[in-house]
Design brief:
The complex is a heterodimer of chains A (about 290) and B (about 325).
Chain A (H helix, E strand, L loop, with lengths): L9 H17 L6 E12 L2 E12 L3 E5 L6 H8 L9 E9 L2 E2 L7 H7 E4 L10 H11 L6 H11 L3 H4 L12 H13 L5 E5 L7 H14 L4 E5 L3 H7 L2 E8 L6 E9 H6 L4 H11 L1
Chain B lengths: L1 H8 L9 H43 L9 E2 L4 E2 L2 H30 L5 H14 L4 H26 L15 H25 L3 H9 L4 H30 L2 H6 L17 H8 L5 H32 L4
Antiparallel strand pairs in B: 1-2
Helix pairs in contact in B: 2-11, 3-6, 3-8, 4-6, 5-6, 6-8, 7-8, 8-11, 10-11
Classes of the chains: A alpha/beta (about 290), B mainly alpha (about 325).
The structure holds adenosine-5'-triphosphate (ATP) and magnesium ion.
């Protein structure tokens, strides 16, 4: 894929955003929107990483984020549960409405946000403790008083890992294979039943079989959760995402600023992209 | 062979290593091997010499020295049990104190509590503690620390003398000031190695912890500490090793009294202090006995290190 295909001038990009915002929301019933991310500007220090990206995320659907490397998909995703607060110099301008409340409001505790909006990362990152304790981690954190074993089993089943690990729950989580570790991380994230699950390229370290397992899993998960997923794999976006947001990089103002080009129902977006940029990108991917 | 030649004749910039390269490589390997083995030999030689000098004492007094409690040169009775006890007791006390503060400092300096510059400055200051000579610690202990802790010791002795640890009063040098100074001396080691352990935690683990919605303390206690456990344990074993062998400051502070007491305020003695103080005026028999004591000290240190390695292996603590 040509890098130039995704870069654009300021005028077209502003139009693009305006239109994207329009199409993005028009398709969705406002009632169904669990999370409404309205990022005006996202900075790392002085560096403007993302601008003008309005990404509504619908309940019980999978929203896919696609776009070239460095266009700010991870930045936007991690802004949604305030993971980026860990990075010195990070600033978010805009609003993220979660059930009508802005999570960037001063009164909101980022810890509470993260407990409600779970995250699965690109690299599997289980803790160096037993499989059981990994899954129970969030439950203990939230002082869960009920039947721990039952919840752990449910989460492991939910992550399609139970049969593989049921006889070795005491083994260290790090002793599992990469794909199993990633599913363990998913189990850990869903054990506390957060309302939203964010996934940043969850399959990039996995082989095709494990990838398919996790994709099937996501489709099951959306019945109970709202899911947002970053992916570099267009086929994956087509297979699992209900809505898709396409981001690109704008180099016109000297920086390399990412922004949302357009967003819509996945079938619509792939079959009938509104923007030239999207067409070029998808064309590059599929030709 | 044909293939090898065709490789050599190819147009690529990559070439097989020259004979000179091979020779340098071999020479380097031999050299490192020689250095490694000479260290092993040196250690064996030291052990052989000290062990050899200790044999007469073992022949004459037997292993009874290990359980004897009096040391009287004129009566020719030599027992080092109080010293063994004092060595272990002072080191353990120092390990508890130094370990607690060392690990706390490591947490404080690695978990983003402070701006980067301040972290670096504080880290250097703590590392400087390791540069202070042992005898200076001893002097500081005698002239500064003991006067400061005496009222505290008196308080504990008057009000809590029913607890064995506080059953005697502090008359000057004793176990507690010695252990306190010892803990400061092992602090830099424990803090530095624990810091490395915390810094070695991959960022993705930190992200995972915060991503689960932990507060900072929850992240530290539930994730960082267990993840760094292997390194911290190593730091503690090293610190204990240092404490066991520390000599000068202890000789000045511990009181050099051959008695076994649980009370932290009682004077005591350690193997290293015994060696340092008795060698200058020792006759032949006494030197042999002291060599035996040196062997015991060496053995204790060795055992501690092996035990540490064993625990790390058995519990599968990851570095
Ligand atoms: N911690 C950070 N500090 C400074 N700049 C950052 C940081 N993280 C990301 N950036 C910058 O922000 C921009 C967007 O990065 P981001 O990781 O969001 O891209 P991405 O779309 O997820 O890319 P990829 O597909 O390669 O993961 C990039 O230019 C990147 O260099
Ligand atoms: Mg990314």
């Amino acid at each position: 894929m040509e890098a130039t295909a995704t870069e654009t001038t300021a005028e077209t990009s502003i139009e693009a955003v305006a239109q994207a915002t329009a199409t993005g929301t028009a398709d969705l019933d406002p009632e169904a929107i669990t999370l409404d991310c309205q990022a005006e500007k996202i900075f790392y220090g002085d560096f403007l990483a993302v601008r003008d990206s309005h990404v509504p995320i619908a309940r019980n659907q999978i929203t896919g984020f696609i776009g070239p490397s460095g266009c700010g998909k991870s930045t936007v995703l991690k802004s949604i549960n305030r993971m980026n607060d860990l990075i010195p110099g990070f600033r978010f301008m805009g609003k993220v409405y979660f059930h009508g409340m802005d999570i960037y409001d001063k009164k909101v505790d980022p810890v509470a946000v993260r407990r409600n909006i779970g995250m699965v990362f690109q690299q599997p990152n289980p803790f160096s403790m037993s499989i059981y304790e990994n899954v129970a981690f969030g439950l203990r954190l939230n002082r869960f008083k009920g039947n721990m074993d039952e919840k752990v089993e449910k989460a492991l089943r939910g992550a399609a890992l139970w049969d593989e690990v049921k006889d070795k729950l005491k083994n260290n989580g790090l002793s599992l294979s990469g794909g199993q570790q990633q599913r363990l991380c998913i189990a850990r994230a869903i054990a506390t039943e957060p309302r939203v699950l964010l996934m940043d390229e969850p399959c990039s370290a996995l082989d095709p079989i494990a990838t398919r397992q996790i994709e099937e899993l996501m489709v099951q998960l959306k019945e109970r959760f709202t899911v947002a997923i970053v992916t570099h794999n267009m086929q994956q976006a087509m297979r699992v995402a209900d809505q898709t947001a396409f981001f690109a990089v704008d180099i016109s103002r000297g920086g390399r600023t990412g922004y949302l080009v357009e967003m819509g129902a996945t079938k619509e977006l792939f079959a009938n992209p509104q923007e030239q940029l999207t067409k070029d990108y998808l064309h590059g991917e599929f030709s | 062979m044909a293939e090898y030649n065709s490789l050599q004749r190819s147009q690529s910039i990559s070439k097989p290593p020259t004979a000179g390269d091979m020779l340098a490589n071999r020479a380097f390997r031999v050299l490192t091997l020689v250095f490694t083995w000479s260290i092993v030999l040196l250690l064996a030689y030291i052990l052989y010499k000290i062990g050899g000098r200790a044999i007469p004492a073992v022949k004459e007094y037997g292993l009874g020295m290990l359980v004897g409690t009096t040391w009287d040169v004129n009566a020719r009775t030599f027992g080092i049990l109080p010293e063994i006890w004092g060595t272990l007791y002072s080191s353990l006390l120092a390990l508890i104190l130094g370990g607690f503060f060392g690990v706390s400092i490591a947490i404080f300096l690695t978990q983003n509590f402070l701006p980067r510059i301040l972290e670096t400055i504080l880290r250097s200051i703590i590392e400087l503690l390791a540069a202070i000579p042992s005898v200076v610690y001893g002097l500081w202990g005698i002239f500064v620390l003991i006067p400061i802790i005496r009222p505290v010791a008196d308080f504990f002795n008057t009000h809590f003398s029913w607890i064995p640890f506080f059953s005697t009063s502090l008359s000057g040098p004793g176990m507690f000031p010695a252990a306190l100074v010892l803990s400061i001396m092992i602090l830099p080691t424990v803090a530095a190695i624990s810091q490395d352990a915390f810094r070695a935690i991959p960022h993705k683990i930190t992200e995972a912890a915060y991503g689960m919605g932990t507060t900072r303390w929850e992240a530290i206690l539930r994730v960082m500490l267990p993840t760094a456990a292997g390194g911290i344990f190593g730091a503690l074993v090293l610190g204990l090793g240092r404490a066991l062998g520390e000599t000068m400051a202890l000789a000045m502070l511990v009181g050099n009294s051959n008695q076994i007491s649980l009370s932290v305020f009682a004077p005591a003695n350690t193997l290293a202090a015994l060696l340092a103080l008795n060698f200058p005026e020792a006759g032949d028999t006494e030197i042999s006995v002291l060599m035996f004591a040196a062997c015991v000290l060496l053995l204790i240190t060795l055992l501690v290190n092996m035990l540490g390695a064993l625990i790390i292996n058995k519990t599968g603590i990851k570095r």
